[in-house]
Design a protein that fits this description.
Largest sheet: 5 strands, mixed, barrel
CATH class: Mainly Beta
Structural class: alpha/beta
Shape: elongated
CATH superfamily: Protein of unknown function (DUF3299)
Radius of gyration: 19 Å
Distance between the termini: 49 Å
Order of helices and strands: HHHEHHEEEEE
Number of helices: 5
CATH topology: OB fold (Dihydrolipoamide Acetyltransferase, E2P)
Number of strands: 6
Number of domains: 1
CATH architecture: Beta Barrel
Strand content: 25-35%
Length: 212
């Protein structure tokens, strides 16, 4: 029995989800830096001063996205349970696999040891609200370009719901560094479910170190 288009479609979706999950460990802020530096958010002097004070304070530990994933969590094990090369057209197991992955993604566990920690973390902005122009007061921080907007969202333990004390002129998919207390708190939105929350003490533009 050969793999059919219906099964292939499901396999491709799951493969994309797994690929994106693996990308998060490397913090995929790469090719988009040059464009973001040229077109991204230009903060006020007050915003820059807050970020500088946060950095200087020593209160915040910079973390990478892979730290948000509990070491024991491995969604690839779910994928391995299904023998996709034996799926027939409209095989109900394909829909079952997709639904199981979607549930797994939405309920991906947080790394409990990070709850309540003062952290700084860099990522891309996926807007949740616009208050006129480019102003926004809340957004999802995600680890790779296009997440939740152009490509499927990462698992909940790779999405941080960020709220701001005052609206900022951040643009969609800007790269930013966020400073604040990392709380383990589930929140749902139309574009992705977050497993963490930060009420930002400071936000600043983030640019990758250039390499030759």
């Amino acid at each position: 029995m050969t793999t059919t288009p219906a099964a292939i479609r499901v396999v491709c979706i799951l493969a994309v989800l797994l690929c994106c999950w693996h990308c998060t460990a490397a913090l995929a802020l790469t090719d988009d830096y040059a464009r973001q530096k040229a077109e991204g958010w230009h903060p006020s002097h007050e915003d820059l001063a807050k970020a500088a004070a946060a950095k200087k304070s020593g209160k915040y530990t910079e973390i990478t996205w892979e730290k948000l994933i509990p070491p024991s969590w491995n969604p690839a094990k779910v994928f391995d349970r299904f023998n996709f090369d034996r799926f027939s057209d409209d095989d109900p197991r394909a829909d079952k696999a997709l639904k199981e992955f979607q549930t797994l993604w939405s309920n991906a566990p947080a790394n409990k040891i990070l709850g309540g920690k003062m952290v700084s973390i860099a990522g891309f902005v996926a807007p949740l609200d616009f208050l006129g122009g480019d102003q926004m007061s809340e957004f999802l921080l995600v680890p790779y370009f296009g997440a939740c907007i152009h490509v499927p969202p990462p698992p909940a333990n790779q999405i941080i719901y960020v709220t701001l004390e005052k609206p900022l002129g951040i643009q969609m998919m800007d790269t930013v560094m966020v400073y604040g207390k990392l709380e383990i708190e589930k929140s749902e939105s139309d574009i992705g479910d977050a497993g963490y929350r930060i009420k930002a003490d400071a936000v600043e533009p983030y640019a990758a170190e250039e390499t030759n």
